[in-house]
User: Fold these one by one.
Assistant:
Number 1:
Amino acid sequence: MSGALLVAGTTSDAGKSVVTAGICRWLVRQGVAVAPFKAQNMSNNSGVTADGAEIGRAQVFQAAAARVEPEAAMNPVLLKPGGENSSQVVVLGKAVTDVTAMSYRGLKAQLFEQVLSSLADLRSRFDVVVCEGAGSPTEINLRDTDIANMGLATAARLPVLVVGDIDRGGVFPALYGTVALMPPADQALVAGFLVNKFRGDPRLLAPGLDTLQQLTGRPTLGVLPWVPGLWLDVEDSLDLDGDRGPALPPVGEDVLRVSVVRLPRLSNFTDLDALAAEPGVLVRYATNPAELADADLVVLPGTRSTVSDLAWVRERGLDLALARRAAEGRPVLGICGGHQMLARSITDDVESRSGTVPGLWLLPTDVVFARDKTLARPTGSWRGHPVSAYEIHHGVVTPDGGEPFLDGVRVGAVSGTTWHGALENDGFRRAFLADVAATTGRRFTAAPDTDFAAVREARLDALGDLVEQHADTDALWRLVEHGAPAGLPMLPPGAGWTS
């Protein structure tokens, strides 16, 4: 068996990533060797594979859903936005160039060869490859150079499942319009629909689904109910506004409040997922000094553009709020780009090309950006607790004093590290939160049995359950094994094509 399926969506954030993960988990529970694939991902939320390749974080958790090690072939092209009109292009896990939106168009033909080669490689080694599209498959202004949606589907003859988010409203015109705007060759591969995030009695939806099938000739293969608290390794900072599930009551007497500075080019914000899963820890995102005032811990997270986001921090007056916290001995944690901001100086002739600029002067460190990116999975310890993590950065931080803190330093209550994922280590997280509570005088007790790996695994199982219980899995099997059925009707010509 060498089957494949493309999960497309009517919009960004329609649920493609979680549906892909759910299908991967459902298949692997059937004894199928399955791999995820996203030809082109645009995200600053990335991870590192065992051999030091950088790929989208969504593909890392989809690989976890499939119970396989993530690898570069699962996300051959990653675009990391660094400004209003520029992105770093990462190919097979390594940064190769920076592009604008227009200059990238000329690069796509070359990248498409790598995309198809990576997909063929995965299909030769796995029974099924579940592909995730990017954005919408009917961006008619981009169709001629598309390598991630219908361009991929037509080249590889992939059956396409279109996901629509009913919680946004307008799911029926979105599903119909997605197909209607496609040229006939693309329409021929769209085999069905999936409705995501439905609240209420699905019987109320049935008349609309029947009419949609009459109009398009394509069935709806499932209605997935709204389930709060399934947030997982999201790839877009827009998802931070979504439902993160109910807050768990504290084990001790107090709640620990964590304010995360919501930088404009925020990256790897999944570092904070483990804190949000901890009972009695309230994580919120802040953009002004008032939102830091009552926080027990302020986190400066990662960023794709350290110097530009540091300027934003100063424009918002957040630099003064952070300086006051440090002077008062109130905890601050900088991670990767946030760690770099805490330094005395930052010399960047690589990302921003700004030369040397002053940092926040909260740690005795200096930063110099190297042209080659550091990609690694380091291990270490803090106060006897083992820590495994991953690194993705150009900035090299050199300390000059301070107490060791993982790979970085600590002065007073201000700590910095370039290590992403450190807070997912349960012993380290509990010890660090206990230290924050002791410093701030909170009567907070970290839950002794919170296992973040088990939390993530349970959420992946819940996604698999959604597919198994609410999707037509027999129809999914047929698509995976045999492709899109022949003779699917063509909708009348739309704006995107002519007959």
Number 2:
Amino acid sequence: MPFTPHAHDAGPAGPARAGQTPGPLIEPSPTPGRHRVTFRWRAGSADERAVVLINTLTDRDRHAGDIGGHVMSRVPGTDLLQLTYELDADLRASYQILPCTEIPGTDRDSWLRVMMTALPDPGNPLRVPGSHGRNPSSLLELPGAPAQPYRDRRPGVPEGRVHEAEAAGRRVWVYTPPGHDAGADPAVPSGTRPVASPGAYPVMVLLDGDVWAGRIAPTMDNLIAEGRIPPTVVLLPDAVDRPTRLREMACHEPFVRHLAGELMPWAARGWRVTDDPALTVVAGQSFGGLTASYAAFVAPERFGNVLSQSGSYWWSDEDPEWLTRRYERSPRLPVRFHVEVGRQEWMLLEENRRFAETLAAKGYEVTLAEYNGGHDPACWLGGLAGGLTSLAAGWL
């Protein structure tokens, strides 16, 4: 069924009328371990309706063909729409609200339009940046959600820098820690300096750099200042666009060869990063998690640590869990893993567990972390800090 979105100001202040409605109302539930969460939206017209889009939870029902349980009801005699859920007390999730005059269909095309149209909650100041052209989301953190102590910038903590550059024809952002000494001009041509130098920095390659370039610095600064990790450089290659991302992050060997054979030597020459795989992490989320694991499979001599979050280990449709079987059938490689997945990720949870179990059975050093949340950047930033801390424990 087609739907007609309503136009609203999605700016920081939101529409003036919506400012009268605060963010979600969170109350204890009679059910142990749960909370009642009421979302509210002030309608701009008599025919306006609204749908609550909680990351992964709403999408699960969309896949089942029925989002009726996420449609707000009007409080009689008012312009207020609201909907109450009973949710686990440790849930963390991003969410949006879709104002509309007709409830959208659950087919893929309709849902793609929903994702490009839905808005953050104007009554909730906590935001999660959007990606790939989408609006920001709002952040819901229930009282029992695990702390994310490294997420936000702390006053007085020395700040690193994020530089924008180009490596082998691709845009890349580079986070350098406070006091970083590159020891060379990033523009030095290839072949004029050795690939490694004494005292080189540990390095993390964080895929989908266009998503993370504006978010990673406070986390890295805080981890370094607290002594959880040594000063570390982060390389953030651009995913370019959606078609390129879908091609390159589906166990695409040419992309991995680019990372190992072009990006890493470029960074060693210009940013003084190590060539030691034991001090190198490749990290990613969703298809990026799959690609990080594939990169270590193809180039273990360059990538000795994998940080995978919500990895798409179901891939591919023609040959499900292809990479898991490749690891199972191949000799153990000198690679360590931190695998993280949300318990609400009904399409990925078991696949991530099987991947971690397969690695453990082969003798790999692997940790598996699960959180109460979905396929969600609101969870990934905190998990990224935890995973990097775990992998870097022996670097200090």
